[in-house]
Amino acid sequence: MDEFSTSDIVINLLLAARWTLALTLVAFLGGGVVGLLILAARIDPRPWLARSANGYIGLFQGTPLLLQLFLVFFGLPLLGLQIEPWMAASFGLTFYASAYLAEIWRGGVEALPKGQWEAARALGLPRSACLRLVVLPQALRMTLPPAVGFLVQLVKATAVTSIIGYAELMRTANAINNATFEPFTVYGMVAAIYFALCFPLTAYARRLEAGGQHRFGR
Amino acid sequence: MLDFSWLPDALTVLASGVATTMGLIVVVTVLGTVLSIAGAAARRSRSKGLRRAVGAYVELVRNTPFLVQLFFIFFGLPGLGIRLNAVTAAILAMTLNMTAYGIEVVRAGLEAVPKGQGEGGAALGLSRTRVFLSVVLPQALRVIFPALSSQIIIILLESAVVSQIAVRDLTYEADLLQSRTFRPFETYLVVTGLYLGLATAMRRGMEAGAHRWIFRGR
Fold first, then answer.
1. The complex's ipTM?
2. CATH architecture designation of domain A16-167
3. Are A62 and B157 inside 8 Å of each other by CB?
4. pLDDT (tens digit, 9 = 90+) per residue, B82-131?
5. What does pTM read for this prediction?
6. Contact A62 B159 (CB under 8 A)
7. Residues B60/B65/B67/B73 CA torsion (nearest 10 deg)
8. Which superkingdom (chain A) (predicted)?
9. Cα distances (Å, whole numbers) of residue A64 to A104, A157, B32, B159, B191
10. Contact at 8 Å (CB) between A104 and A60?
11. Chain B contacts of A184, Cβ < 8 Å?
12. Residue contact B59–A64, C-beta within 8 A
């Protein structure tokens, strides 16, 4: 068996943290794109479309992420797709992120004064252009603090993908722990790395929130 | 293509999993609520050291994944001579997690109560503890309850990962079932539906309870 020194443990964990970051980034960007589509459907005047989007959001916010990952991991092969853990992790977290981001942004869209819509419509813009050019830019800026807050949630959520076999920080920690039998050190370090990733984002979200309240005079 | 013929034989196992999961949630809700109130009171205490310690705990828990906290407690703490069985470790991890979020919720609720309320209580000659429990806290509950009940739902969804330390919760039973039926997708689909049902039922139940007990006469 290989001998692991403490510095070996740290180096291997830090290398694995790259995959945690990569997955977070993919899920945030992918979730952002899908989330915008869900948002557009959620605020559509056609009731069936809005209701479907609402159901989608409720489904992802009302079930455990671990089960969502299992369903992607075991469900896509039923459709005849060969799937690797990293693909299941990316798809699963993208859907998960899209539901939360759509709901956050919807809050922003609904907080916007109705006059913004009416003025844009009065200029003769079609609904989709109102949304894209007038409403969304303001709503996205207004909801930046909760979106950054969700990014923290997403970094932490990537740890669950270790269970379906994606070799990010947590799974690497389990493997190192199995080789070294030093769970206190290994999981302590893992916690420290997650903290180092999340805390600056949390602090940033908090600063944005304070600034925003000041600016909007709430 | 989908095969649910295993389901009738699995009902007792699933029921036992639901019972374990709900048992965990009930215990954690009670412990977490009491500790959140105590923690929020500590954050308002006159001792700077106590305020700082509670603040550090809140940041530490909120900026690390639940799965890491769970593994640290279950696998790591025995290194310090603290050996917990799986259920105790799960309850401890879930309670620590819920309390970290709950403290902020309760604190926001307490801050929403006008200062004059506490001063009025003090002017009547009530002790500090009495003022907190009988005057400030009941009014704060109206702000606290909605956010705290969402937190309880989040803990329900997060609790799925305690299956990874062999707590026989709903997800653990699903893992065992699918290894017997070779129908992972169908098994996890049913169990995901059960979680969604539990989350929905709990949300409705808590809303009804709130209307009955907290928002009475409004």
1. 0.92
2. Orthogonal Bundle (1.10)
3. yes
4. 999 999 999 999 999 999 999 999 999 999 999 999 899 999 999 988 99
5. 0.93
6. no
7. -10
8. Bacteria
9. 19, 11, 20, 8, 10
10. no
11. 72, 76-80
12. no
